[in-house]
Design goal:
8-stranded mixed beta sheet, binds coenzyme A, Aminopeptidase, about 30% helix, alpha+beta
Length: about 160
Amino acid sequence: MAHFPSKEIQAEVFTIRKVKPSDLKNIVEIENKSFNAYPLKYKNFWYLMKHANCDFIVVEVGSRIVGYAITLYKKNISTARIYSIAVDPDFRNRSFGDTLLVKLQDLAVYRKCNGIRLEVDSVNLSAIRFYEKNGFQRNGEMLHYYGHNKHALRFFRKLP
Ligand SMILES: CC(C)(COP(=O)(O)OP(=O)(O)OC[C@H]1O[C@@H](n2cnc3c(N)ncnc32)[C@H](O)[C@@H]1OP(=O)(O)O)[C@@H](O)C(=O)NCCC(=O)NCCS
């Protein structure tokens, strides 16, 4: 358990932990509220949880899942990749995103990765600001990555 100051209440009790099957229904709801285009489906999350080489974590407030984050790993590649991160709109701007990101980075360091990378939609300005604020630097662009004229920006952060 940890405490963190939030905008609305001074101290908020939350837990960051590994995902479990009963979380997936809530995670799909957060996903659908967070991404208009190509949200991941229940079966995608199930596959990631059961079979992927990944860290799949959630943040829980009381008994409610309010955010999730996933990092993928490839054998013999020392750069981790943030695959997805989302916080329930009702719980944004309370540093849960920051907290998930810090935990993902700690886990990647534990796995001996020396960097972490991600792609983000070039029009997703709040996510871009979120990553920049957390020390990620833009290192490329992938044209039409999300479809025609829907480009992705690549970001990277070196890990200690
Ligand atoms: C990106 C995302 C995960 C960030 O989650 P979040 O929980 O809102 O993130 P944080 O609260 O840590 O930080 C967001 C903002 O809140 C501010 N904030 C955080 N805690 C605060 C506090 N206690 N008091 C005041 N402001 C605070 C931060 O400074 C930041 O503001 P800024 O972006 O204007 O600089 C979330 O917006 C989201 O789910 N977006 C939709 C999905 C998405 O786009 N994911 C990334 C795709 S790759």
